[in-house]
Structure formats: structure tokens, C-alpha cells
Amino acid sequence: MIQNNPTLIDAIRDRFAHVDSCPFQGERIFFENAGGALTLKSVADTSAFYAAIPDNPGRINPAGQETQNVINKAKDDLAVLMNASGGQFFAGESGTELLFRMIRTACLAAPKGAKVIGSSIEHPATRSAARRWSEIAGLDYVNVPHNDETGLVTPEDYTARMTPDVAVATILHASPVTGMGMDVAAISSAIRAVAPECLIIVDGIQHAAHGQLDLDVYNVDGYAISPYKVFSRHGYGIAWISDKLTTTPHDMLIDAPARGWEFGTRDTGSYATVSDVVSYFDWLGGEVSDETEPRKRIEAAGRAIHAYETHLTNAAINGTGNLPGLRDMAHVSILAGADNPAREGLVSIVVNGHASENVVEILNQQGIRTHTRKADHYSGNVLTPLGLSDCIRISFCHYNTEQEIARLLGAIKVLGLDG
Known about the structure:
Aspartate Aminotransferase, domain 1, Aspartate Aminotransferase, domain 2, 2 domains, four-stranded antiparallel sheet, 14 helices, globular, Cysteine sulfinate desulfinase, EC 4.4.1.-, PyrdxlP-dep_Trfase_small, lyase activity
């Protein structure tokens, strides 16, 4: 495991660029992983290499053929990482753009008068798409309220509002506001128990870096990730779609292959960096287990990451060394409760008597990078019901350390002394 293994933690941190310093700020601790994780050094090298290649993938020349092989390998690697025995992977502008495409396609293919179901915990990437395209397609939108106190929506919550005429469903895998993870497999099962042919689309953007991915278990039709939140770079998203969604009428060029969902020339570098990420998970799985089969190593890496990030969030909440945890600071309130087993590497707080923006700036001046979430179009669905205008999001990843959390706790503790 990662905890209590300083040699492994050092090896992990050594694989990431700017792990303890920012080229614009200098020394800093990075607790803004939910906004975008650190980038693997191998990803930066790979991006630079392919950015200089002028050839289009698939052309009948050595460069064209080899770049196409790189893309094909990346798709095979994704199938191992996400345990997909069918369907297909493709790249797009961003995870949000891909969610819009999948949801639009599903809604336009649904029978008139059918329903679309989603939950109030969802990021606007799915909520906005579902609301827009359900209206255009003449479908009724059904909202499943989440639990404000726990930050969760459950299979039972979906079941209570499911009817056989639901044709499209959306699920959020993990919240970028509270960090709470939903039970996608159980929610999917609850949906299919009532509407077995429903097209189910999942926003996996926040979850992907923090635990297992298992598409065969989820039994859904679409799943999107944003690789910049999974140790790669900005500028593209990755989607997986089932064979059923693949063959659903969708945007495509006239007379193009019926299974095609990609437009224009592919960026080989984006796909190649996906393989770098998969290689990293494979390496980590070999460090924390004796597994030899790639998928088993990736599963071991996911378990180790989840366990270590749980340790980090517990240290932040309960304290470390002689420092009190966030739960023991009278001036701090923790969103979704201090004891929430659904938490995935993220703690959002409010510091009484301090505007969240001011707290983030105070921490930033001390080299501790966090982020403000406001009750706007991104986070208002979570914050407004709690009576909050904003909060401070502190998001961890498995390359963070307990020593970094001690620095954070010391800085937040001081904020209570001027209250």
C-alpha cells in the first residue's frame, strides 16, 4: 500500500511535473486536484513529441501508419483501464462536450413523450444537456432530488421516480463540489429494473482519478472522462459508448462508416498520453501488489489509491500529529458531514466569519493551492439548498502527503484565532 511507504510516495511524486512547485508561483502544495490533476512527466514528453509530427494518422506512409497504431493501442489500453469488453472509445473536445453529444443523441432517438431522468446532484455537464435536449426532443425531464446533508443520490431515490417510459438516464459518478461518489452500478440496476432499454449516460469526470473504473459492471451506455483530471493534459475528452449507443442515429458525415463518432483528423498525442496514464496505473499496481496481469495490476492500483486518499481525507478531518482536524475546529463546517464513507479525495469546508475567496487567497499566499466554489451555475445546485453562497474545496490525490495536510491544518487553525 502507499501509506507508510515513503520510498513509494517519493517514487510516485517523482513521476509528476510540478509536484511541489509552480512555475509561476514557486513552492506550493497542490490541493486543487478536482480542478485538474498534476500531469505525468511522461505525458509532457509524449505531447511534445507528437505535436511536431505533421502526418495524418492512417495515411499510407510510415508516419501515418505508426500514428494510427498509437491511436489503436490507446483504445485497447482504455479498454483495460476501464474494463470494457464491448463498445468503443473516442476522443472529443472535452468531457463536457462528449456528454452533450451522447445525451443529445440519446434524446433525439427516444420516442416522443418519453422521459429523461437525472438527479439534482449532477454537474451541469449532464443536467444542462439533458434539460436542453429533452425539451427539443419533446421529452419530459424527471429530476431526482439528492440528499442535501450527505451529498448523495441513491438507487432508491431513482427507483421512487422511475417509470417504464424513461428512455434516457444520466448519473453523476462523483461530485466535484462535495467529493461524494455515487453507486453507479446499483443506480443503473435500479433504472434497468423498470426501463431495461433505457440509454444510461454517466459523468465519470470527477471519479476517474480516485478509484476503480469497471464499465462491464456498470451496465451503462455512455461514460465520459476528462484526461486532464486523470494525470494527462488539457484539450480533449474521452468517451466510451456501448454497441447500442454506437448504432443509435447520430451526427456523422454522409456515407461515412456507421459506427464512426469522431470528426476530422485525430490528435495522436492525446491518445498517446492516455497510454502513458494507463502505463502509470499499471506500474503503480505492480508496486502495491504481486499481480502480473495488467487489469489486475490496475485494479490493485485503484484500491491502493482509494485507501491512501481515504487516509489523507481522514487526516484532514480528524487531525494529524498534534494538530486538530477540521471537525475539531469550531470555526470550520464540513460539507456533507465529517463521517461520510462515500467521500473520494475531497473535503469542502466553510470557515465561519471568512469569505471563502479570502480564505483561498490567504492559503495561496502561504503556498497552499485550494479553490472557491460559488453558488453559481456550476455549484448552486449543491450550495444553495445548504444556504451557502460559497465554500472552499480542498481536493487531494495520491501524490499528496500527510505532511502537506499538516501545513494546511496549521494554516486553517490560525484563521480561528481572529474570530
